[in-house]
Amino acid sequence: MPNSIPNTQPQTIQTGLADVLMTQADFLRNNTNILNTFFNTYGGYTTFAMKLRALGWATPFSSASQSPITEHYFQGREKRSFTVGAITTASTGVGGQIVVALSAGDMRTIVGDDGVTRRFSRPRAGETIQFADRKNYKIISKNQTTNPHQLTIKPKDSTVNPATAIIVNAKAMILAPTSAEATGQPKSVENTYGKYQNRFAIVKEEALTSGTAKTTKSPLRQITGQPMYWYVKDVEEATVRHEINKSKILLHDSLGDNIQQYSVDFDDNFPDRGTEGFIQYATTAGQVNEYTDLDSYDLDEFDEVAAYYRSLMIASNNVLVWQGNLIGSRVENVLIDYLADKAFMSYVSNNFMKNTLKSFTDDDEMNYTADDMFISLGFRGVRKNQMNFMFSILNELNDIEGGGLFNYPSWQFFLPFGMTKDAKSKKALPYLGYEYRGQDAGGYSREDIMYKHGGAAITNRDQFDVERTSFVSEIALHCSNGELIVVNKPVGA
What is the CATH number of the domain that holds 123? Predict the structure, then answer.
């Protein structure tokens, strides 16, 4: 990492010295106000990557990744329902039994290392179940030789005719195995594990500064109580570009297998694989809710999101909402009375930012409060349907030379604020973050590399009277649970 200029001691920085630039990551670690001042001075903005870092989500792991693939394991939510796909044997009448086939969606197929295909389904013989008639039934037996599997079902009440409620497409709720006296145990339920994988994208930027230009220093606007900082215009502009580049890749990139680039040093071609960005992942792994148009957008959308999260039994009632500016404005207009509640804003900032992000607020050297952090990151808050929604405009969605070209200003993304565990390592992971390559030994990090070379550089000189400042980051988006992401977008977008 480039050296940072401490914000605790005033000092004069002479232009032309190597590695005196404050990068955006160092800004943020020291003082949010300095970060925002720097980017606002340059016409930049608080980026997606900055917000992830500020929330403590710069990397889901405690150390840099030494693998070309970032991954984690997750345990699927236990399925406690099924759908009737077909009636294979009709009901024998009141108190009688019926045989049904499961729907295709209730079947899971696995091809083992031995090449054998095996089929699994959740319902077990011996379980008590309930259909829409609110009558209880018993799974008498399960036939696993058929595809889909078949269940023999019988009502617990001898006066109930199963044909009344057990029809094609009927849904059943699984309650629990129940047994008669002196009987054996039910079969166990197989845990379902999945694996999330993503690759790293190598993001680069370059600044070219003449030797003469290096002798001209420019000031960064002074902040009250903070020292005056100096910068080299070309280099600092490239710093901003690089930060924006990283965020756009983390948001919009996709995995690919069709691009090869030639390496002069290795005299060989290497693949440019990219990383699966947040938008692509969210729209494929998340829940997509479409609305007709902005004018018709109303509070029902938030009620639907709250209901969806409760159906997933989410423990956290704090929800982040990343917004484009058009839907952000519409939400403000719809929720104007809620958003005007200053007392609630203070409640959200202190409970969400202070209690959750203790590393930012418990440090005696930090000169900003939870409210300051909340405001600096552009958050607004509202409580709706017993959930705390934290809104923040995602600037990359609005850029007229970026997301603004493709209707992204009308998109928003919901994600609960919380942690989950890797089912294999048991490490705690945030629901959303990014990871970077590096080595623990020697502290080599590829989150943000800056190096200088050229004839006007202090080291690594050549014959040309210029200083080249190169930026390199090797990063990958890391999403812990796509099921928890809700995408809200216009119909057809």
Answer: 2.40.30
Asked if residue 386 and residue 275 are part of one domain, the reply reads: yes
Number of domains in the chain: 2
Residue closest to 410 by CA, chosen among 385, 427, 393, 423: 393
Give CA–CA dist 8/149, Å, rounded: 68
Assign 308 to helix, strand or coil. Answer: helix
What is d(CA 480, CA 432) in angstroms, rounded to the nearest whole number?
A: 6
Predicted confidence band of residue 68 (pLDDT cuts 50, 70, 90): confident
Q: What is the pTM of this model?
A: 0.73
Q: What pLDDT does 90 receive?
A: 94
Distance CA(434)–CA(454), nearest Å, equals 32
The pLDDT score that the predictor gives to residue 8 is 31
Instruction: Name the band, by pLDDT with cuts 50, 70 and 90, for residue 347.
Output: low
Q: Please tell me the distance from the alpha carbon of residue 350 to that of residue 361, in angstroms, as a whole number.
A: 10
Give the range of the structural domain holding residue 478, as residue numbers without chain letter.
1-76+191-493
User: Residue 136: what pLDDT?
Assistant: 94
440: Cβ contacts below 8 Å, ≥ 6 apart: 63, 64, 66
In contact, 294 and 409? CB cutoff 8 Å:
no
Angle 298-302-306 from CA coordinates, rounded to 5°: 160
Checking if the pLDDT of 11 tops 60, the result is no
Residue 109 pairs with which residues in a beta bridge? 119
Residues in Cβ contact with 339 at an 8 Å cutoff, skipping those fewer than 6 apart: 332, 345, 380, 381, 382
CA distance 219 to 199: 39
Looking at residue 281, what is its pLDDT? 92
For 419, the 3-state DSSP assignment is strand
Q: 147: which 2 tokens?
A: 């595809």
Is-contact 58 360, C-beta < 8 A?
Answer: no
- The domain boundary residue, chosen from 187, 216, 234: 187
pLDDT (average), residues 468-476: 88
User: In angstroms, how far apart are the furthest CA atoms of the chain?
Assistant: 97
Number of H helices, E strands in the chain: 11, 28
pLDDT tens by residue, 206-221: 888 887 777 766 665 5
